[in-house]
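Revision sheet: structure tokens.
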Amino acid sequence: MTASSNPDEIVFLSAEATSAAIRAGEFTATDAVNAYLRRIDAIDGEIKSYITVSREEALGAAADADEAMRRGDAEALGGALFGVPVAVKDQFNTDGILTSNGSRAYADNVPAADATVVARLKAAGAILLGKLNLSELAMGGTADPPYGTPQNPWRREHTPGESSSGSGAALAAHLCAASVGEDTGGSGRGPASYCNAVGLRPTFTRISRHGITPMCWFMDAASPMTKTVQDCALVLGAVAGYDPLDPTTSRRPVPDYYGMLMGDPPTADGMRVGRMTELCNSPDMHADVRRATDAALETLAGLGAEVIDVSLPLTEIAGAIFVGIADTEGAGARDGLMRRAPESLDRASRTRLQSAALVPAKVQNRAMKARVLLRRQFEEAFGQVDVLVSPTAPYPAPRHDALTAPFESADDVRQRFFFRRSYTGCYPLAGMPAVSIPGGFTEDGLPIGLQLGGGPFAEATILRAAYAYQEATDWHTRRAPV
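Predicted:
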């Protein structure tokens, strides 16, 4: 049964296929928005991926898209995401719509303008369905989320990841065609890994951060999160590029990421792929994650890649380096709020910020020096290879209660607070891009993410490798049981 014969099937299409079908007249943008709104109404009461559903705004935008179709408006129809229903993490400002940052402290925060990312999504023809749930202030570890705890559609008692939890859950439950999360240390890639989605952290400065509530100003990054690699390329191309409202953005031209995937049949022929030994050999890694990563590297080799082992010793402690920098930066960014209204914050968030504010300057200074050394190791690695490969996370999605249990020992802190952050935190520390793609499943059916990283502004390279792997496997086609 096709989407044109059964409107409820629309929600299972990729963003790419949705836009193509609307342009072809198979269904309208209003049909697509209504299909998603019906599904949100039916199941998001349990999934809790949305904080705000902008129903009237979405239907109005869909009517405008349908009118553009009737007029044959070439400019509108040329938008890369024409008619595609999307949602964004509630960390992005939206004109006239609540931007809560997942916190009671921002319960009345209704911006008067869109973040640049949101404005560019709309300019590309996308239709905003609403704002997605997240850990408070995009930090992770919220004890009592004010808008409910997002559930992993693959297994409800397990987390969909942090802090772009709603973004990952919404994709897995097919509650939007594409989304944009935010990734400071892995907050986009982690939920993508746990939810069998695609999540990209771009090169620092590739995407404007204007209108995004900050956590750590020199590591924050908007994160395209999608159902397929092709969709990720489309969203990245739509939102990337210089923005005068964010003077840190790069003036480099934005490649046609999507077009670069659509030429010859996908292959990794001639590509040098580095197996990150420290992250792939850890004795603490889940056995199924190790098996899936080894199998993925074999698949890439079969697609023509040369796979070699690459050592980056500081990746083993990248989680500790990341926390030493990002948490102290976050405490500084929230200093006014902590002084003015600490009671408005979740107890876990408040404790984490208070603890980070007490970190000695010499500790942060050492972490900053280690960051420079880690980047140097990455630069040397990318002198040998085109792409680095590792798991996105060393284990599948944990149970909710495992995240909130009290720490029992120093080793427990290392395992739960630092260990997993090393896998994703190393790339923002280096300022380099990485993407998480569906890489397999555990024996009991939980998704496993495969991470591919590249040098500065090498998004096209890692997307090409990711696309080749995706097309050689079927992991991305599997649906969560919702």
